[in-house]
Amino acid sequence: MLKFLRKKSILFSSLIAMMIMFVIAILIVNPGIDGGDGASILALQLAFDKQVGIKIIEQWGPAGHAFYNRWAFTDSIYAVCYSLFFASLLALLGFRANKVVTRGSAIPPFIALTAGILDCVENFMEYLFVQNPIDFSADLFFFHSIITVCKWAAIMTAVLIVFILALKTLIKASAPVQKAR
């Protein structure tokens, strides 16, 4: 898996796909759902309380609800793109920083892929909630928000590891090379 993720073609294609999906999600889909800046999507993810979630989706109105039903799948495509990009970047940076592959080498890319999986689970639960908010379990809605927090924690952890590995790579590259005597 790490060998596949370290391919530059995977890194660059997933970067391009991630950027395209980011633009679609942030500039088209999210504002189209709530008729504003799209912030209600994040508010729904982090609502924790089912009644708050119901109020959020009621504010979307019928047009926003229909728009959500038509375009909700794009968030899962975005999750696959960003998780693949970060997993690829982490695999590549980890190899460059350490020059050896160990069992621990798979952990950072796994964290990035886990973020994408959690995002897809979150999206599925949101979709079910939006379809029938009254009958959706309050406990399951709370769990949905916990999954969101875990997703964001995994994303932030992956980004932090990217910075650490990039810094480690830069330090190694700028260190003077000692010549053999």
What do these coordinates show?
The structure is a single chain. The radius of gyration is 20 Å and the shape is elongated. α5 packs antiparallel against α6. By secondary structure, it is mainly α. It has seven helices and no strands.
Show the helix and strand layout:
Blueprint lengths: L1 H4 L2 H27 L4 H7 L4 H22 L1 H26 L8 H25 L6 H37 L7
Quick structural gist:
This protein has 7 helices and no strands. The protein has helices spanning 2-5, 8-34, 39-45, 50-71, 73-98, 107-131, 138-174.
SS summary, helix count: 7
Proportion of helical residues: over 70%
- Tell me the series of helices and strands, N- to C-terminal: HHHHHHH
**Major sheet: size, sense and barrel closure?**
none
Report how far the terminal alpha carbons are from each other: 40 Å
**Which blocks of ≥5 consecutive residues have pLDDT under 50?**
none
Which key phrases capture this entry?
elongated; 7 helices; mainly alpha; single chain; 181 residues; 82% helix
